Structure formats: C-alpha cells, structure tokens
Amino acid sequence: MAADQDQTHIRARLSTFDTAMVVFSLVVGIGIFRTPAIVASAAGGTSLFFAAWIAGGFISLIGALTFAEIGSRYPRAGGYYRVVADCYHPTLAFMLNWSQTLMQGAGAAGVAFIGADYLMPVLLPPQWRTPHASLVLACATMLSLLILNYRGVKPGARIQNLLSILKIVMIVGLAALALLLAPRTRMIEPVSSAPSGLRLASALIPCFYAYGGYQLTINLGADLKDARRRFPLAITAGMFTVVGLYLLLNFAYQRVLGIGGIADSKLVAAALSRATFGSSGEVLISIAVFLSAAGFVNATIMQMPRSFYAMAQDGVLPRAFLRVNPDTQVQEVGLLFFGVTMLLPAFVLGSFEKLLNYVMFTDTVTLAVVASTLFVLRRRHAGEGGFSMLGYPLLPAFYIVCLLGVAARVFSLEPRLALTGIVILLTGWPLFRLGHKLFNG
C-alpha cells in the first residue's frame, strides 16, 4: 500500500522563481519573433500596432491575475482540468482538455520546427538545409527535452531557468543594441480603409497568441511550495516581465524597421538583427530564437502530463497515468504520451498562420470556460484566505468577454478552422464516456 501511495503522490519541489520562469517560457515561445509582422499587417498603422500590444498585455495581465486566484484557491495537480471537473462536470473538463492536449502537442511541435529553421543556417551548410533536415532538428530538440524531463521535475526546472534567463538576456540585448546602433528608418505609414475597430480586433488575435500560456501553470499547483501564497507572485512576476520585454522589443522593431517594414518581414527579429549587426546578426538571432523555442517546448513538456494525472484520477484515462516516480516526480507514462502528441503532428503541420488561428479559437474558448470557474469558487468560498484579485467581479468578467470576442473574430476570419476546433472538442464527449466505462469497470 505504501508503494502505491508513493506512486500516486506528487510532492512540492518547485520554488517561486522556478514557477515564474515556467510562466515566462510558456508565454515567450516563438510568438514575439514571428507575430509582430502579422500584428502590423492587421493593424495597418503605428498607433493601432502599439494599442494592440498594450491592450493585449493589459487583458492578459487581468487573465494572469484571474488564474493566479484560481491557482491559489485550487492548488491541484492538473488544475486546468480538475477545476472545471469540480466546478462544472468531468465530461466538459475532459472535452476541453482533449482539444487542448491535441492543440498543445501540435503547437509545441510547430514551435520546435520554427526553432529548427532558425538554427539550420548556424549548424548546416547550404546544401544540407532541406525540409528533411528541419524535421530531424525539430524532432531531436523535442526528444532531447523529453529525456531531460524524464530525469526529474527539478532537473527540468533547472534547464527551464537557464533557458529563460538566456532568453531574457537575448531579448533585452537585441532591443537595446538595435535602439543604440541601428539607423532609424523613415517609412510612409500604410493606408487601410478597414474600420479601426475591426483592425484592432484582428491585430489582437496574434497578440493574444504571443501573450498566451500563463494559464497552464495552474497544472503545477501541486508542485509549487506554499502554492496559496507563492502562486500569485510567480504568475504576476512572470507576466510583468513578459509585457515589459514585449513592449521594449516592439519599440525597437518600429524604430528601426517602421510599421511597413515589420509587416513585410516574416522573420522580423532576423530583419532587426541584420539592420543592427549586418550579416553576423543572423547567427545571433538564430541562436536566440532557437533558445526561445526550446524554452517553450520544455515548459510545455513540464506541465502537460499533470493534466493527464488529473484525468486519470477521474477514471477517464488508464491508472497508468497516475504513476509518479517517487524519486524524480516524473509521470513516465504521461510524459511518453505527450511526447507522442508532439512528434506525430510534426509530420503534418501546415503554415504558422493556420496553426495560430486554430490554436487561438480553441484556446480562447477553453480559457473563457476555465476563467469562469473563479465565480464558482468564490461562491463556494473555496480556498478562503489565499490570494484575491482586485476588481472582482468586473475585471474577470471583462477578461472573459474579451476572450469570446477574439474567438468570434477568428470564426469570422477562418470558419473552417474554427469548426474543426469545435468538432475536435465535441469528439471528447464519446471518448469520455468510453474511457469512463473502460477504466471504471
């Protein structure tokens, strides 16, 4: 019996700094090196470009505080699944987590691919830079990080901290040196006839993608020491760091390239680096983007298996997902399963823009549902004495309305992708019923 308890008990090993660094890397994946071009194209002007980044950061900060209170009141392993199951119903929780699992695995694989594309010019001669080489590098990155996390939660956190600190240094260094050294480009502002409101709504979609990820740290609620007190500190510290760095880097993009130059530069960070350092800048930014991608993939690998743990507790996944190595605190079956959800989509991914719209529709709908559990937790007086956000209930309600507005805008722009997300969500219902029947006798 004691051995079984060891296998199913998660002990807190992460510090506030560890968790803040996970928050940072879950948010700062590849987005800030790719989405500014999409934001600039949608905004069509400097004012709306910065308005989108500032509004997106403000709304995401409200979201971070909302999830900080949920995590403080409900510090559980796999909290992103568990809180919906307890506040509403396990069926809805499974459906949301099913669609999120497929989205997170594919999203992590897409980030690994972009990181590999940036790294190829540094490692390989021109004749070897093929799509096959990109696939090999991306899979090697994912496999290496899976192996590191297999060694234990704390070693995974140490790698996360190192990658996060290097990422912060790279972003600050690139932005500061660009502002100091690169000549300022004077460009004519693009002219758009579309209404400002619609342009801002379209620009917010990639902004929310770039800012997203903080919410998934509630899956680590059982891993953080003194979670009720430290969880809000970790999330808000991580998000303030993200917002500050994003605004700094976007200011450098705009000063050096102009809004038109940003919109025309798919790999905008590479364009900024070239303008600042010349051809040698390509190597610097390639390494920076690869480290950023690796940090995002590693943070995703750390937290996703905890959702499988919570679903197995409800009997909708096999009990093998409950097994936790008592020495390393690793869910070996859950880690292997998530590895499969990353590696398989690596062979069928489409364009980044298509991936972004699919991810954003699924993610914003799920976020709205999970964020709404705060109202249920407050009504039940769950976790009283922990963190309580200011501005309740207006701020979390405003956050939920903004999420649903973004989902509606994605649906209007890409109805097929949105409908695909809805279909995947709905297939979770029969899978839940089947799993519950098979694994609960």
Please explain how this structure is put together.
There is one protein chain. With 441 residues, the chain is mainly alpha-helical. It has one domain: Up-down Bundle (Amino acid/polyamine transporter I), CATH 1.20.1740.10. Helix content is 75%, strand content 0%. The protein contains 16 helices and no strands. Helix 6 packs across helix 13. The chain is globular. The two termini are 21 Å apart. The N terminus is likely disordered.
Q: What low-confidence regions span 5 or more consecutive residues with pLDDT below 50?
A: 1-8
Helix proportion range:
over 70%
| CATH domain class name | Mainly Alpha
Shape: globular
Number of domains: 1
So, the CATH homologous superfamily?
Amino acid/polyamine transporter I
| Radius of gyration, in angstroms, nearest whole number | 21 Å
Mean pLDDT: 81
Distance between the termini: 21 Å
CATH A-level architecture: Up-down Bundle
Largest sheet: none
Task: Report the portion of residues in β strands.
Answer: under 5%
Total number of helices: 16
Order of helices and strands: HHHHHHHHHHHHHHHH
As for the CATH topology, it is Amino acid/polyamine transporter I
Structural class: mainly alpha
Task: Report the count of strand segments.
Answer: 0
